[in-house]
Amino acid sequence: MAKFETGPTKAVQCSVCNKKFSRTDHLKRHQLRHSGVKPYACIFCKDAFTRSDNLRDHYPSCSQRKNRQIPEAARGGRRSHACDSCTSMKLGCDGNNPCKTCRHKKIECKFSRLQSKGILNRQETPKLDSDSTPTSDRGSINFLLNSGTASFIDCFRFPSSHENKNLFNFRNNQKSPESSDVVDMFGNNSDNGSAFSDFFEDESIDWSLFEEENLLKFLSTPVAEIHNFGSAPVMTNMPLPVEWEPASVQSAAIIQGVMESTQALHFNIQEQTQISQNLNFFFTPSKIDKFVAHYFEFWHPHCPILHQPSISIHTTPIPLLAAMIIMGSMFSSDDRDVNLGKVLLDLVEHYVYSIDDLTEESEVRQMFRASNPAPEMLPMSMLAFQHLQATYIIVCVQFWAGSLVARRRAADARFAVVVKMARRFGLAKVRHELDDSIDEHSWVLKEGRIRFINTITLLDCAFLFFANFPMRISFSEMNFELPCEEQLWASSHPFAEKNFTANRNVTLFEAFQSLFGQIKPEHAPVQATKGNPFALNPMDMFTLIHLIYVNAHTQITQYPSSFPRSPSDSGTSTPANHPEPLPDSNITMIKGALSRWRSLWINIRACITSNSWDKIGFFRNGFNYWLVIQLLINNKGSADILMGMEVGCEDALKQLRGLLRDGGGET
Question: What PROSITE patterns is this protein classified in (predicted)?
Fold first, then answer.
């Protein structure tokens, strides 16, 4: 007797592991595992889960909950908002009255279904002019905020939205029979070498998702990158307790160096006395040990430019040690340490930047003594490089914890010195050479320089992202090698590590070009895979997504006429001196790069365990910068907002909140 199938037909299939499901929502829930996104976070501890029911099961046994009440479960799904027409046609509805679909179809927009349930319909929105062309609903914006949950900001330490309903909606990647089977260098199918396949290409935009709480917090408070980073208020004249501790060689040298540098500031006797007291209270041997430990515990995972096994308090140059101490103090649990660290921050900055290696006088002296009458670049001693590392750390702590004036000075003037010195010493071309693979010490020194130039490039991008400062480092200068794997850099003897390779054989610019399908690796790295031909890691991906942001920002601001403007600008003629419209091919290339970046990110995340992922630092938040770029290139108000930003503004990301209120769709 023939057997008849009684169960549901499994009609949808995962594009990653080919597992089949009978329902689309089951597929979407399953694909969260491949993405690594855990949208449901415990409000008592750091644990996060892919499913809300797993979070509910976790709460009773949470070791951090103690006797606190378990939060009530949120109501499933989002609040009903669709009009009658969109509901009957099963279309996405923006909830406005009239909604965009009804305006486009020129039909009456009714909400009788919601009114019968006691749900009031939305306020009426202005109707489009008869000659206005409605923008398309097609695109991937509904995915933009889907990952904006606790995983987005777990490094930012914001209050957890434990029951936010995450709609991480993957689409089943099904090719049409007509499409050709061309596989690009990332293993993605496309119909030609430059086109790309997007999982979210056909999904309508649900703009209600842009009210997601955590993204609003991110756009409003972009400074709180690290736990308790400089969170205490500054008190300039606080009473200091009488605590005497014998000075060490290091503490005495720092105090003497800072006091000598203050002579150029012409403080009076009373002010000098106050500064001396503050320095002697702050730079004690015990506090130095504590703050250096804070530096490596809280800051180093996010900025691994120092080879920790080689660092010793007793041998580190005094300016670099002072910078590490002032950074570490920002993470102290004692408010007095944080307060006093902020009081002394400007003085330590002045001391570090007055070092002879960083002055123009030093450059003139070196040029005078150079054997070659016109050297291409000046030699860089290890001491000079460590002084340069100190300047970078000072820029970071000033920008994230300093006063408003200090923040602007750090991003504008002080960082310019860092970039100038990096150019002067030829770091833009630094790569591992044959000799480095023979001598471990030489390899560590060269790797430190490679990491430094990669890191200041990332900071250069961050200044554009957070404060709209133009990039100081050009794409053509990014001919330096990508940094090694973190496991090697953290090792006391990298050559003894099982997976040691002397170099990556790929520059940052080459990796960036690969996202646009313009280059393939000549020599595939040992750990390369079909989906990751350059063997990129989360730190690489974090830098690359910032570079894509720079590229998108440049295209939008240089070719603003290619993006739909605000209604007040519609219908106006383009001035004669207005930039030419951005070619559609440029927009397509940016979207293709974003698609390839996301595919790489998913592949890389799937290969890293959860424990290892948690130790990566804020590099693991790279996907959320991808979301912001999607917000920019798919929103009609991007050009207006970016063109209206001032250089060095304090609210660059906060201004993007205007895009969340703009339901105009993509370009």
Answer: ZINC_FINGER_C2H2_1 (PS00028), ZINC_FINGER_C2H2_2 (PS50157), ZN2_CY6_FUNGAL_1 (PS00463), ZN2_CY6_FUNGAL_2 (PS50048)
CA pair distance 187, 185, nearest whole angstrom? 6
The amino acid at 651: D
Buried b (16+ CB within 10 A) or exposed e, 423-438: eebbbbebbbeeebee
Helix and strand numbers, DSSP H then E, in the chain: 24, 6
pTM to 2 decimals? 0.66
Residue 386, both tokens: 């460590």
529-535: long-range pairs with CB below 8 Å, 24+? 529/603, 530/187, 531/186, 531/187, 531/599, 531/600, 531/603, 532/186, 532/600, 532/603, 532/604, 533/185, 533/186, 534/482, 534/504, 534/506, 534/510, 535/504
Strand stretches in 503-596, DSSP E: none
* Structure confidence at residue 97 as a pLDDT band (50, 70, 90): confident
CA distance 272 to 427: 39
Sign of CA dihedral 155, 330, 491, 449: positive
Give the CA angle between residues 62, 151, 598 to the nearest 5°.
145
Predicted confidence band of residue 34 (pLDDT cuts 50, 70, 90) = low
Instruction: Give burial (CB, 10 Å; 0-12/13-18/19+) of 248.
Output: middle
Tokens of 373: 């009458």
The C-alpha atoms of residue 620 and residue 637 are separated, in whole angstroms, by 29
Closest CA to 545 of 594, 617, 475: 594
- State the helix-helix crossing angle for 508-515 and 584-606, rounded to 10 degrees: 110
Q: Given 3.30.70, 4.10.240, 3.40.50, 1.10.10, which CATH number is that of 75-139?
A: 4.10.240
Tokens of 573: 């003629």
pLDDT above 80 (res 51): no
Percentages (nearest 5) of helix, strand, coil residues in the chain? 50, 5, 50
Q: What is the pLDDT of residues 374-389, one digit of tens each?
A: 555 666 789 999 999 9
Measure the CA–CA gap between 478 and 481, rounded to whole angstroms: 8
Q: Is 105 exposed, middle or buried (0-12, 13-18, 19+ CB in 10 A)?
A: middle
Distance CA 11, CA 31 (A): 16
In the predicted structure, residue 144 carries a pLDDT above the cut 70: no
CA-based angle 232:615:313, to the nearest 5?
65
**Any idea where the domains of the chain sit in the sequence?**
75-139, 247-425, 477-567+576-667
Three-state SS letters, 472-518: CCCHHHCCCECCCCHHHHCCCCHHHCCCCCCCCCCEHHHHHHHHCCC
Distance CA 370, CA 382 (A): 18
Dihedral angle over CA of 481, 483, 484, 486, nearest 10: -170
Q: Closest Cα partner for 323 from 357, 346, 352, 284?
A: 352
C-beta neighbour count of 477 within 10 angstroms? 18
Per-residue confidence band for 318, with pLDDT thresholds at 50, 70 and 90: very high
What is the chain's mean pLDDT, rounded?
A: 74
Q: What is the mean pLDDT of residues 144-169?
A: 31
Tokens standing for residue 306: 């120092």
131 within 8 A of 158, measured Cβ to Cβ: no
Instruction: Give the integer Cα–Cα distance in Å for 177 and 185.
Output: 22
Residue 40: is its pLDDT beyond 50? yes
